Amino acid sequence: MPTIESLLNDSDLHDSPSARLDAELLLAHALNKSRSYLHTWPEREPSAEQLQAFAQYLERRRRGEPVAYILGRQGFWSLDLEVTPHTLIPRADTELLVETTLQLLPATVAQVLDLGTGTGAIALALASERPAWQVMGVDRVAEAVALATRNARQLRLGNVRFHESHWFSALAGQRYELILSNPPYIPVGDPHLSQGDVRFEPGSALVAGEDGLDDIRQIITQAPDYLRNAGWLLLEHGYDQAEAVRGLLSEGGFVAVESRRDYGGHERISLGRLE
Protein backbone atom coordinates (compact mmCIF):
# COMPACT_ATOMS: atom_id res chain seq x y z
CA MET A 1 0.00 0.00 0.00
CA PRO A 2 1.26 3.50 -0.77
CA THR A 3 2.21 5.78 2.10
CA ILE A 4 1.36 9.44 2.58
CA GLU A 5 4.88 10.39 1.52
CA SER A 6 4.83 8.31 -1.66
CA LEU A 7 1.39 9.63 -2.63
CA LEU A 8 2.62 13.20 -2.35
CA ASN A 9 5.79 12.47 -4.29
CA ASP A 10 3.87 10.75 -7.10
CA SER A 11 0.90 13.12 -7.33
CA ASP A 12 1.82 14.33 -10.86
CA LEU A 13 0.33 17.83 -10.83
CA HIS A 14 3.05 19.29 -13.02
CA ASP A 15 0.73 21.77 -14.75
CA SER A 16 -0.10 23.48 -11.48
CA PRO A 17 2.16 26.33 -10.30
CA SER A 18 1.59 25.12 -6.72
CA ALA A 19 1.73 21.36 -7.31
CA ARG A 20 3.05 20.28 -3.91
CA LEU A 21 0.68 22.52 -1.97
CA ASP A 22 -2.26 21.35 -4.08
CA ALA A 23 -1.39 17.71 -3.45
CA GLU A 24 -1.06 18.25 0.29
CA LEU A 25 -4.39 20.08 0.51
CA LEU A 26 -6.18 17.40 -1.50
CA LEU A 27 -4.66 14.50 0.41
CA ALA A 28 -5.40 16.12 3.76
CA HIS A 29 -9.00 16.57 2.61
CA ALA A 30 -9.24 12.92 1.55
CA LEU A 31 -7.92 11.87 4.96
CA ASN A 32 -10.01 14.43 6.84
CA LYS A 33 -6.82 15.57 8.56
CA SER A 34 -4.73 18.74 8.72
CA ARG A 35 -1.70 19.31 6.50
CA SER A 36 0.51 19.03 9.56
CA TYR A 37 -0.67 15.42 9.93
CA LEU A 38 0.91 14.60 6.56
CA HIS A 39 4.32 15.74 7.77
CA THR A 40 3.97 14.12 11.19
CA TRP A 41 2.95 10.69 9.85
CA PRO A 42 4.47 10.36 6.34
CA GLU A 43 4.71 6.56 6.71
CA ARG A 44 0.97 6.07 7.32
CA GLU A 45 -0.97 4.10 4.69
CA PRO A 46 -4.38 5.56 3.76
CA SER A 47 -7.36 3.26 3.40
CA ALA A 48 -8.69 2.12 0.03
CA GLU A 49 -11.58 4.59 0.30
CA GLN A 50 -9.19 7.46 1.07
CA LEU A 51 -6.96 6.47 -1.84
CA GLN A 52 -9.93 6.49 -4.17
CA ALA A 53 -11.05 9.92 -2.98
CA PHE A 54 -7.53 11.32 -3.39
CA ALA A 55 -7.30 9.91 -6.93
CA GLN A 56 -10.58 11.58 -7.84
CA TYR A 57 -9.45 14.92 -6.41
CA LEU A 58 -6.17 14.70 -8.35
CA GLU A 59 -7.98 14.01 -11.60
CA ARG A 60 -10.24 17.01 -11.11
CA ARG A 61 -7.21 19.19 -10.39
CA ARG A 62 -5.39 17.87 -13.48
CA ARG A 63 -8.39 19.02 -15.52
CA GLY A 64 -7.79 22.49 -14.09
CA GLU A 65 -10.57 22.71 -11.51
CA PRO A 66 -9.55 25.09 -8.70
CA VAL A 67 -8.52 23.45 -5.43
CA ALA A 68 -10.97 25.68 -3.55
CA TYR A 69 -13.91 24.26 -5.51
CA ILE A 70 -12.72 20.69 -4.94
CA LEU A 71 -12.36 21.29 -1.20
CA GLY A 72 -15.43 23.49 -0.98
CA ARG A 73 -13.46 25.81 1.34
CA GLN A 74 -11.15 28.80 1.08
CA GLY A 75 -9.37 30.92 3.67
CA PHE A 76 -9.81 34.72 3.59
CA TRP A 77 -8.61 37.19 6.21
CA SER A 78 -8.86 35.17 9.44
CA LEU A 79 -11.89 33.21 8.24
CA ASP A 80 -12.51 29.78 6.74
CA LEU A 81 -15.29 30.08 4.17
CA GLU A 82 -17.47 27.72 2.20
CA VAL A 83 -17.13 28.31 -1.55
CA THR A 84 -19.10 27.05 -4.54
CA PRO A 85 -18.81 27.51 -8.33
CA HIS A 86 -21.61 30.12 -8.11
CA THR A 87 -19.11 32.67 -6.77
CA LEU A 88 -15.55 33.87 -7.24
CA ILE A 89 -12.89 32.28 -5.07
CA PRO A 90 -11.78 34.84 -2.44
CA ARG A 91 -8.21 35.98 -3.07
CA ALA A 92 -5.57 37.46 -0.81
CA ASP A 93 -5.28 40.67 -2.86
CA THR A 94 -8.88 41.53 -1.97
CA GLU A 95 -7.90 41.70 1.70
CA LEU A 96 -6.58 45.17 0.83
CA LEU A 97 -10.21 46.34 0.69
CA VAL A 98 -10.72 45.07 4.22
CA GLU A 99 -7.50 46.63 5.54
CA THR A 100 -8.27 50.02 3.99
CA THR A 101 -11.86 50.07 5.25
CA LEU A 102 -10.69 49.32 8.80
CA GLN A 103 -8.31 52.28 8.53
CA LEU A 104 -10.92 54.71 7.22
CA LEU A 105 -13.75 54.22 9.71
CA PRO A 106 -13.61 54.16 13.52
CA ALA A 107 -14.79 51.11 15.45
CA THR A 108 -17.97 52.94 16.50
CA VAL A 109 -21.46 52.40 15.06
CA ALA A 110 -21.50 52.53 11.25
CA GLN A 111 -23.46 51.19 8.28
CA VAL A 112 -21.28 49.51 5.62
CA LEU A 113 -22.34 48.04 2.27
CA ASP A 114 -20.52 45.34 0.26
CA LEU A 115 -21.72 45.22 -3.36
CA GLY A 116 -21.43 41.90 -5.23
CA THR A 117 -20.64 40.03 -2.03
CA GLY A 118 -20.20 36.51 -3.51
CA THR A 119 -19.13 34.22 -0.66
CA GLY A 120 -19.58 37.17 1.71
CA ALA A 121 -15.82 37.25 2.31
CA ILE A 122 -15.37 41.03 2.52
CA ALA A 123 -18.53 41.68 4.53
CA LEU A 124 -17.79 38.82 6.93
CA ALA A 125 -14.20 39.94 7.49
CA LEU A 126 -15.38 43.45 8.32
CA ALA A 127 -18.15 42.19 10.60
CA SER A 128 -15.69 39.96 12.45
CA GLU A 129 -13.34 42.89 13.11
CA ARG A 130 -15.94 45.54 13.96
CA PRO A 131 -18.78 44.23 16.14
CA ALA A 132 -20.34 47.72 16.34
CA TRP A 133 -20.75 47.96 12.57
CA GLN A 134 -23.87 46.80 10.74
CA VAL A 135 -22.65 45.29 7.47
CA MET A 136 -24.88 44.57 4.49
CA GLY A 137 -23.79 42.37 1.59
CA VAL A 138 -25.78 42.17 -1.65
CA ASP A 139 -25.48 40.03 -4.76
CA ARG A 140 -27.61 39.57 -7.87
CA VAL A 141 -27.17 35.77 -7.67
CA ALA A 142 -29.55 34.06 -5.26
CA GLU A 143 -27.16 31.13 -4.72
CA ALA A 144 -24.44 33.58 -3.66
CA VAL A 145 -26.75 35.22 -1.11
CA ALA A 146 -27.60 31.80 0.32
CA LEU A 147 -23.91 30.86 0.48
CA ALA A 148 -22.90 34.11 2.22
CA THR A 149 -25.74 33.63 4.70
CA ARG A 150 -24.51 30.11 5.48
CA ASN A 151 -21.00 31.42 6.02
CA ALA A 152 -22.29 34.08 8.42
CA ARG A 153 -24.21 31.44 10.34
CA GLN A 154 -21.19 29.13 10.54
CA LEU A 155 -19.05 32.00 11.81
CA ARG A 156 -21.76 33.09 14.26
CA LEU A 157 -21.67 36.71 13.13
CA GLY A 158 -24.86 38.56 14.00
CA ASN A 159 -23.95 42.03 12.68
CA VAL A 160 -24.00 41.14 8.98
CA ARG A 161 -26.92 40.49 6.63
CA PHE A 162 -27.17 39.44 3.00
CA HIS A 163 -29.84 40.26 0.43
CA GLU A 164 -30.44 39.78 -3.27
CA SER A 165 -29.87 43.01 -5.21
CA HIS A 166 -28.26 43.96 -8.53
CA TRP A 167 -25.95 46.64 -7.19
CA PHE A 168 -28.33 49.19 -5.61
CA SER A 169 -31.58 47.96 -7.16
CA ALA A 170 -33.15 46.73 -3.89
CA LEU A 171 -31.65 49.37 -1.57
CA ALA A 172 -33.92 52.38 -2.10
CA GLY A 173 -33.73 54.85 0.77
CA GLN A 174 -30.68 53.24 2.42
CA ARG A 175 -27.59 55.27 3.36
CA TYR A 176 -24.14 54.08 4.38
CA GLU A 177 -20.95 55.54 5.83
CA LEU A 178 -18.93 53.40 3.43
CA ILE A 179 -19.61 51.35 0.30
CA LEU A 180 -17.07 48.94 -1.13
CA SER A 181 -17.00 46.41 -3.93
CA ASN A 182 -14.88 43.90 -5.79
CA PRO A 183 -16.95 44.10 -9.00
CA PRO A 184 -16.35 42.47 -12.40
CA TYR A 185 -13.52 44.36 -14.12
CA ILE A 186 -12.10 42.12 -16.85
CA PRO A 187 -12.63 43.27 -20.47
CA VAL A 188 -14.55 41.07 -22.90
CA GLY A 189 -12.11 38.86 -24.79
CA ASP A 190 -9.28 39.14 -22.28
CA PRO A 191 -7.01 36.08 -22.76
CA HIS A 192 -6.83 35.50 -18.99
CA LEU A 193 -10.45 34.32 -19.10
CA SER A 194 -9.33 31.09 -20.77
CA GLN A 195 -6.41 30.43 -18.42
CA GLY A 196 -5.95 28.83 -15.00
CA ASP A 197 -8.61 28.79 -12.29
CA VAL A 198 -10.54 31.66 -13.90
CA ARG A 199 -11.87 29.22 -16.54
CA PHE A 200 -14.04 27.62 -13.86
CA GLU A 201 -15.31 30.80 -12.18
CA PRO A 202 -18.62 32.48 -13.16
CA GLY A 203 -18.14 34.85 -16.09
CA SER A 204 -20.81 37.21 -14.76
CA ALA A 205 -18.56 37.94 -11.77
CA LEU A 206 -15.54 38.63 -13.97
CA VAL A 207 -16.43 40.44 -17.22
CA ALA A 208 -17.61 44.05 -17.49
CA GLY A 209 -17.79 45.35 -21.06
CA GLU A 210 -15.20 46.24 -23.67
CA ASP A 211 -12.83 48.00 -21.25
CA GLY A 212 -13.82 46.16 -18.07
CA LEU A 213 -15.19 49.30 -16.45
CA ASP A 214 -18.94 49.07 -17.13
CA ASP A 215 -19.91 47.97 -13.62
CA ILE A 216 -17.44 50.34 -11.97
CA ARG A 217 -18.98 53.25 -13.91
CA GLN A 218 -22.46 52.24 -12.75
CA ILE A 219 -21.41 51.94 -9.12
CA ILE A 220 -19.63 55.31 -9.11
CA THR A 221 -22.61 57.02 -10.77
CA GLN A 222 -25.17 55.60 -8.35
CA ALA A 223 -23.19 55.46 -5.09
CA PRO A 224 -23.70 59.15 -4.08
CA ASP A 225 -27.43 58.45 -3.67
CA TYR A 226 -26.65 55.80 -1.05
CA LEU A 227 -23.79 57.43 0.87
CA ARG A 228 -24.07 59.64 3.92
CA ASN A 229 -22.29 62.99 3.98
CA ALA A 230 -18.53 62.50 3.60
CA GLY A 231 -19.08 58.80 2.95
CA TRP A 232 -16.41 56.64 1.30
CA LEU A 233 -16.47 54.49 -1.83
CA LEU A 234 -13.78 51.81 -2.33
CA LEU A 235 -13.39 49.72 -5.48
CA GLU A 236 -11.10 46.88 -6.45
CA HIS A 237 -10.04 46.91 -10.11
CA GLY A 238 -7.49 45.54 -12.57
CA TYR A 239 -3.78 46.20 -12.18
CA ASP A 240 -3.82 48.67 -15.11
CA GLN A 241 -7.13 50.44 -14.43
CA ALA A 242 -6.25 52.68 -11.47
CA GLU A 243 -5.81 55.89 -13.47
CA ALA A 244 -9.12 55.39 -15.27
CA VAL A 245 -10.97 54.62 -12.02
CA ARG A 246 -9.48 57.65 -10.27
CA GLY A 247 -10.73 59.77 -13.16
CA LEU A 248 -14.22 58.31 -12.88
CA LEU A 249 -14.29 58.94 -9.13
CA SER A 250 -13.24 62.56 -9.57
CA GLU A 251 -15.82 63.09 -12.32
CA GLY A 252 -18.42 61.52 -10.03
CA GLY A 253 -17.94 64.18 -7.36
CA PHE A 254 -15.55 62.31 -5.06
CA VAL A 255 -12.60 64.00 -3.35
CA ALA A 256 -9.48 62.69 -1.58
CA VAL A 257 -9.23 60.25 -4.50
CA GLU A 258 -6.29 57.85 -4.37
CA SER A 259 -5.20 54.32 -5.26
CA ARG A 260 -3.47 51.77 -3.05
CA ARG A 261 -1.16 48.92 -3.98
CA ASP A 262 -1.65 45.21 -3.35
CA TYR A 263 0.95 42.77 -2.06
CA GLY A 264 2.38 42.46 -5.57
CA GLY A 265 2.94 46.20 -5.88
CA HIS A 266 0.03 46.84 -8.30
CA GLU A 267 -2.48 49.63 -7.81
CA ARG A 268 -5.34 47.30 -6.92
CA ILE A 269 -7.99 49.51 -5.28
CA SER A 270 -9.09 53.12 -5.69
CA LEU A 271 -11.18 55.18 -3.29
CA GLY A 272 -12.74 58.54 -2.77
CA ARG A 273 -14.87 60.47 -0.29
CA LEU A 274 -18.17 62.11 -1.21
CA GLU A 275 -17.74 65.87 -1.06
Describe what this molecule looks like in 3D.
The strands form two sheets. The protein has a seven-stranded mixed β-sheet with strand order 5-4-3-6-7-9-8, sandwiched between helices. The chain is built from ten helices and nine strands. It starts with a helix and ends with a strand. The protein is elongated, with a radius of gyration of 20 Å. A hairpin with a 5-residue loop joins strand 8 and strand 9. With 275 residues, it is an alpha/beta fold.
The assigned structural class equals: alpha/beta
Order of helices and strands: HHHHHEEHEHEHEEHEHEE
Biggest pleated sheet = 7 strands, mixed
Mean pLDDT: 90
Beta-sheet strand percentage? 15-25%
Q: Count of DSSP helices?
A: 10
N- to C-terminal distance: 68 Å
**Rg over C-alpha atoms, rounded to the nearest angstrom:** 20 Å
Number of strands: 9
- Residue share in helix: 25-40%
Strand order of the largest sheet: 5-4-3-6-7-9-8
Question: What descriptors fit this protein?
Answer:
two-stranded antiparallel ribbon, seven-stranded mixed beta sheet, 275 residues, alpha/beta, elongated, single chain
Quick summary:
It contains ten helices and nine strands. By secondary structure, it is of the alpha/beta class.
Write the layout of secondary structure elements.
Blueprint: H1 4-9, H2 19-31, H3 35-40, H4 48-62, H5 67-71, E1 73-76, E2 79-82, H6 95-104, E3 110-115, H7 121-129, E4 133-139, H8 142-155, E5 160-164, E6 176-181, H9 214-222, E7 227-236, H10 242-251, E8 254-261, E9 267-274
Parallel strand pairs: 3-4, 3-6, 4-5, 6-7
Antiparallel strand pairs: 1-2, 7-9, 8-9
Helix pairs in contact: 2-4, 6-7
